[in-house]
Design a protein that fits this description.
mainly beta; 4 strands; about 5% helix; about 25% strand; globular
Length: about 70
């Protein structure tokens, strides 16, 4: 898992292994930070990733809005 910065400036955990049906594009910016952007289909030749919240069995425990 890697931590990325979204387009809205929020931190998001992303699985570190690419997957064929991923919806995220991940890259390292000049400042060394990892960034992520939804709509990976815009970059068909790039590797695609998925949010760690989609695969983590403990995702609900870590969400801020859990009940």
């Amino acid at each position: 898992m890697v931590w990325t910065i979204t387009e809205k400036g929020k931190r998001m955990p992303v699985d570190s292994k690419p997957v064929p049906d991923g919806n995220l594009f991940v890259w390292q910016a000049d400042d060394g930070e990892m960034h992520s952007r939804v709509e990976a289909s815009q970059w068909p030749s790039q590797k695609r990733y998925v949010s760690h919240f989609a695969t983590c069995q403990f995702a609900n425990h870590h969400r801020k809005d859990r009940k």
